[in-house]
Design a protein that fits this description.
four-stranded antiparallel β-sheet, five-stranded antiparallel β-sheet, globular, 5 helices
């Protein structure tokens, strides 16, 4: 895993385009952007495995990852999409393995940092909950 550099403004603009933060305001995203770290994964690299604790949410800047259950692909996650969200928020071990398909650049938000900012900002909590409800509806309609 390597690190890269984006400006805070670039991070805010990107965060606004990601499903989980699309309902958040620019001001709220400024606080989130300050907590992010840009990370890179090589093609084929396992990001986390089923049964492991997940301590971060990942937002894909570039590339794709595959989400697998028992060795079978469940879905691909690409640019402007998040993975690790549920496992990181409910503090339970991962129910999937996530592996980079391509070379991947992502923003990483540590679970504790996200929980800290959510505990101080009810509007951001509402934005994240709306996005998660949208994802649940999307998966339920498949």
């Amino acid at each position: 895993m390597e690190q890269g550099t984006l400006t805070t403004l670039e991070k805010v603009i990107f965060l606004k385009s990601v499903d989980i933060f699309k309902h958040a305001t620019i001001e709220e995203l400024g606080g989130v952007a300050a907590l992010t770290e840009e990370v890179r994964f090589e093609s084929g690299e396992t990001i986390y495995s089923e049964g492991e604790p997940v301590d971060a949410i990942f937002l894909v800047l570039k590339g794709r990852v595959v989400v697998e259950k028992n060795g079978k692909a469940v879905r691909d996650v690409g640019e402007r999409q998040a993975f690790g969200t549920v496992a990181a928020l409910d503090l339970k071990p991962a129910i999937h393995t996530v592996r980079a398909i391509d070379s991947v650049s992502a923003l990483k938000i540590n679970t504790q940092d996200l929980q800290d900012i959510l505990s101080l900002n009810f509007e951001l909590v509402q934005a994240v909950v709306r996005a998660l409800c949208g994802l649940v509806r999307e998966f339920a309609s498949r």
